[in-house]
Design goal:
The chain has 573 residues and is an alpha/beta fold. The chain has helices at 15-28, 38-41, 71-78, 104-117, 122-134, 142-154, 203-217, 222-236, 258-265, 280-290, 299-305, 308-319, 358-361, 383-408, 421-437, 441-472, 491-499, 517-525, 548-558, and strands spanning 48-49, 56-62, 180-183, 246-251, 272-275, 293-296, 327-331, 338-342, 348-351, 364-369, 488-489, 532-536, 541-547. It is built from 19 helices and 13 strands. Helix 1 (15-28) packs parallel to helix 6 (142-154), helix 4 (104-117) packs antiparallel against helix 5 and helix 4 (104-117) crosses helix 6 (142-154).
Length: 573
């Protein structure tokens, strides 16, 4: 139903008053408050309304040109709009302090919700919001206040008050006048209301939902998915913490799902900024201005260059870990040169093959993906499917975050002693969320923290050990690619063979270059394999290498046995 007016509405001058009037009208008729937003309700005849299935043809069913109205007539029918002076029955207490930066909407929404839970009506809550707004040094516009109230009214998953039914209910036919449009194949009056979201207090259920969403499209261990789910929630409550963990999504090969994971995250995280290479100056300015959640892809190409850009990006990532650090940017030239301190703090996820600079890696939780096997079954991540699956999760995330920030400020969860100091710093915000969720999540989150710390230290080393075993094992009647010298495996010839392995990270391990003997020693040392020096009679000089016996023992401990292969195997001699 559309109401025809005698006078033209002056946009945008009368927009605020017009939208408020439409919301009051919808409330009186027990209709949809979103009718105040033209994009939600306008339908062009002879087009199809895709809100329904199958899409319905929109047609004009009637238009009485004699039935037109003035805006003043609506005020007479609906009564005077409540003012801040209107008294709200029942006791309520205004928030004691003005909302902090970036928290105005959350504070207003939480206040409105608390009054609605107490059983106050729409007019009384509106009066209380306007009274609170009037006392602020920088008050919101009347339209903003009304928007907040309507969002609180339509949040049907809130407990303690009757939900407002949205969509699927028409006004009394006797009140419908003017031009009308209808769908000829589907009647909106018979359409079911939008499915209610799960209670935002069910935080464990929300976390489980995110884990299921991620594993629906990506092959990865459950501990990794749980860490990602906690990090997603962390992006929505980052105002509660002073240190933020980064996610480092990496893999040993291409086509392992790194970019796909970032594409999934952009539908869930707060203020996503999904980008590839961007100048350091633009990056710092964007982080300072908009405080987005950075989803930075293809970082392996950046750090492989070892140039000024890689250095500047590293500095920004190092500073963005803490709320108290800033990035320095010089602007202007000559006498007009200025030095600016930019706030680059915020949640960040970086993706790329290989390793991050050590200082950035130290601030990150590593999510190591592997290429999907033929036996792995996940759904293809089509954008429309992903977007539809993520939408209810995002609504629940936004609803939960409004009330969660005060609860998480100053939280001090119990931290596993097995985590080092830095790991405790980056896991503390996530464990606080897990403790708030309750149920199995506190234990699961700590298990994930310990697993990922071990994985980060050992996964690469174990993968390297497996490739060394392959290099030392004869295959298909072919000799081994690397031969020992006096039961020692020398580093240089071994690294040349490893660098030739396809789909392995060793050829670009050291910032785009082949793995060095020093890096090889660092990895094998984690598995208790160390070099040994012996005198070579054949060469007439000392030879340093890795003892075959030590490699046999490590293979037996960390790798599964390989049947049908002689020489190197998973069994100790």
């Amino acid at each position: 139903c559309y109401w025809a007016l005698r006078e033209a509405v002056d946009f945008p001058a009368d927009l605020d008053a017009f939208e408020i009037l439409l919301r009051r009208l919808a409330g009186t008729l027990n209709g949809d408050p979103s009718s105040a937003e033209a994009a939600h309700v306008l339908r062009v005849p002879k087009t199809r309304n895709y809100k329904y299935s199958p899409p319905a043809l929109v047609e004009t069913t009637g238009c009485d040109a004699s039935r037109r109205y003035n805006l003043s007539e609506f005020d007479e029918w609906l009564g005077a709009d409540p003012t801040p002076a209107a008294a709200a029955p029942g006791p309520f207490q205004l928030p004691l302090e003005p909302p902090g930066p970036g928290l105005r909407h959350k504070t207003f929404f939480a206040f409105a919700r608390s009054l609605l839970v107490k059983g106050m009506g729409e007019c009384q809550v509106r009066a209380a919001l306007l009274a609170y707004n009037a006392g602020l040094p920088d008050p919101k516009s009347t339209t903003e206040v009304e928007d907040t109230l309507q969002k609180a009214l339509t949040a049907r998953h809130r407990a303690g008050f009757e939900p407002v039914v949205i969509l699927g209910r028409r006004a009394d036919p006797s009140a419908q006048v003017g031009a009308t449009t209808a769908d000829t194949t589907s009647d909106p009056s018979g359409a079911p209301p939008i499915e209610a979201d799960v209670d935002p207090d069910d935080l464990a259920g929300l976390l489980d939902g995110i884990v299921a969403f991620i594993r629906r499209f990506i092959v990865l261990p459950e501990s990794h998915a749980r860490a990602i789910a906690l990090w997603v929630l962390h992006t929505h409550v980052i105002d509660a913490v002073d240190i933020t963990p980064y996610l480092h999504v990496t893999a040993g090969t291409k086509r392992s799902g790194k970019s796909r994971l970032l594409e999934l995250l952009r539908y869930l995280v707060r203020r996503p900024w999904y980008t590839g290479r961007v100048t350091a100056a633009a990056l710092a300015r964007k982080l300072d201005k908009d405080t987005p959640t950075l989803l930075l892809d293809e970082t392996d190409q950046v750090f492989a260059e070892k140039g000024d850009y890689a250095l500047h990006l590293t500095n920004i990532l190092n500073a963005g870990f803490s709320r108290f650090l800033t990035a320095t940017l010089c602007t202007g030239e000559g006498a007009g040169l200025q030095v600016r301190e930019l706030k680059v703090f915020g949640a960040k996820c970086v993706a790329g093959i290989g390793q991050l600079p050590p200082t950035v890696a130290d601030r990150s939780i590593q999510i190591c993906l592997q290429r999907k096997l033929r036996t792995d079954h996940v759904e293809r991540a089509r954008d429309r499917v992903v977007k539809g699956a993520a939408a209810p999760l995002r609504r629940r995330l936004e609803a939960w975050s409004i009330q969660a920030v005060p609860l998480l400020k100053g939280a001090e969860p119990t931290l596993p002693d097995a985590l080092d100091d830095r790991a405790q710093d980056i896991w503390e915000p996530l464990l606080s969320i897990a403790d708030l969720a309750g149920g199995a999540w506190p234990l699961q989150a700590r298990t994930a923290a310990l697993t990922l710390q071990r994985d980060e230290a050992e996964d690469v080393a174990v993968q390297l050990l497996g490739d060394i075993r392959d290099a030392l094992t004869p295959r298909d009647e072919q000799p081994a690619a690397v031969k020992p010298h006096q039961d020692l495996i020398e580093a240089v010839p071994l690294l040349k063979v490893l660098a030739a392995f396809e789909d392995k990270p060793w050829s670009t391990w050291s910032r785009g270059e082949e793995m060095t003997p020093h890096a090889l020693a660092d990895q094998l040392r984690k598995l208790d394999v160390r070099t040994k020096q012996e005198w070579s009679k054949e060469r007439g000089k000392p030879v340093r290498g890795y003892p075959l016996k030590a490699l046999h023992v490590a293979c037996a401990r960390y790798l599964s046995p390989v049947s049908g292969i002689s020489g190197m195997s998973g069994r100790a001699p």
